Amino acid sequence: MAEEKVFLDEKGVKVTSARFITFGKTHSMSGVTAVSSYIIKPNRKQPIILAVIGLIITIFHWSGLILVAGAVAFWIMQKNKYTVSLSSASGSEDALTDLDKDFILRVVDALNDAIVHRG
User: Residues with Cβ < 8 Å from 21, sequence gap 6 or more?
Assistant: First the structure.
């Protein structure tokens, strides 16, 4: 039997010709038919509501600006999450999520290379 070829090994994630190993879970590459990625955008409703309340309070008292500043900080701290999705005959599964878009794209490329290598 041929030796496993490693396509990616970083940040605790390993992609080989036979396996996709994420944090505590191993996926067999033999069942993977397609790989994709997508973005999970943060819910921005809470900081918007906080800012509106702060602006309303500011009409009556300057202390409402503290809420507005908090809303701006809340907005800035929210980040997009990027997810790797694996498709197989039994359906689709989100296998990995990270804040680093470039890392997720490298994982997707490595998984696609492993699928092509498998033949």
Answer: 13, 14, 15, 27
